[in-house]
Amino acid sequence: MSAKLKIAVQKSGRLHDDSMKLLKECGIDVNNGVNRLKTEASNFPLELFFLRDDDIPQYVEDGVADIGMVGENVVFEKEKQVKIVEKLGFGKCRLSIAVPKNVEYNGINDLHNMRIATSYPVIVADYLKKHKVQAEIHEISGSVEIAPGIGLADAICDLVSSGSTLFMNGLKEVEVMLKSEAVLVANKDLTAAQQQLLDKLLFRMRAVRKAKN
Ligand code: ATP
Ligand code: ZN
């Protein structure tokens, strides 16, 4: 049997279209099968799995998928054993702390004893520890930006790109914890044949990006 690579791609959401576009620009034809769990490329030994982004690091660590396209923010939060092989240049955002705009903020020590709502408890805990700040982390899974307004938290940590969501919710960005973009991750134990396919794919991805610069 000849080697094949299985790639995990976000099923729908902010990374989906750019992920599919990148594959297409690499000359890989995929018969649009987004409504299915998986599909195959017709001209490259590549099988695609469409998944929630949060699940991608786990699937790649387990080898259910060999490689995946996912935000660095998710890779760092999930702490899975995967290799980051390439930055992909899309899905750019930052993971930031924000407080209500009328709250005075002079520096990270002002977060002391605050309740911080976030979907990124691991990254926030790391950041607070690094800066020796003691605060309470409230993990919530969505609509983090409304937490201060309903009295659930004093601050939030969430993904920001333009800042308009923060603004609309009366919040101001006060700390940037992480600058993130989509990356290609790989399983740590690829076979030599799979590594060769990955190298071929990487070569094409780099050519595509070079052509754009
Ligand atoms: P899923 O249904 O797959 O779990 P999701 O709702 O968790 O999707 P999306 O909102 O689609 O995730 O975001 C996917 C990724 O896009 C983020 O993890 C991040 O890497 C990137 N991203 C870029 N800009 C933003 C932004 N402004 N807000 C949120 N995510 C962003
Ligand atoms: Zn998600």
TrEMBL record:
<comment type="pathway">
    <text>Amino-acid biosynthesis; L-histidine biosynthesis; L-histidine from 5-phospho-alpha-D-ribose 1-diphosphate: step 1/9.</text>
</comment>
<keyword id="KW-0808">Transferase</keyword>
<keyword id="KW-0460">Magnesium</keyword>
<keyword id="KW-0963">Cytoplasm</keyword>
<keyword id="KW-0547">Nucleotide-binding</keyword>
<dbReference type="GO" id="GO:0005524">
    <property type="term" value="F:ATP binding"/>
</dbReference>
<dbReference type="GO" id="GO:0005737">
    <property type="term" value="C:cytoplasm"/>
</dbReference>
<keyword id="KW-0368">Histidine biosynthesis</keyword>
<dbReference type="GO" id="GO:0003879">
    <property type="term" value="F:ATP phosphoribosyltransferase activity"/>
</dbReference>
<comment type="function">
    <text>Catalyzes the condensation of ATP and 5-phosphoribose 1-diphosphate to form N'-(5'-phosphoribosyl)-ATP (PR-ATP). Has a crucial role in the pathway because the rate of histidine biosynthesis seems to be controlled primarily by regulation of HisG enzymatic activity.</text>
</comment>
<keyword id="KW-0028">Amino-acid biosynthesis</keyword>
<comment type="similarity">
    <text>Belongs to the ATP phosphoribosyltransferase family. Long subfamily.</text>
</comment>
<keyword id="KW-0479">Metal-binding</keyword>
<feature type="domain" description="ATP phosphoribosyltransferase catalytic">
    <location>
        <begin position="52"/>
        <end position="206"/>
    </location>
</feature>
<keyword id="KW-0067">ATP-binding</keyword>
<dbReference type="GO" id="GO:0000105">
    <property type="term" value="P:L-histidine biosynthetic process"/>
</dbReference>
<keyword id="KW-0328">Glycosyltransferase</keyword>
<protein>
    <recommendedName>
        <fullName>ATP phosphoribosyltransferase</fullName>
        <ecNumber>2.4.2.17</ecNumber>
    </recommendedName>
</protein>
<dbReference type="GO" id="GO:0000287">
    <property type="term" value="F:magnesium ion binding"/>
</dbReference>
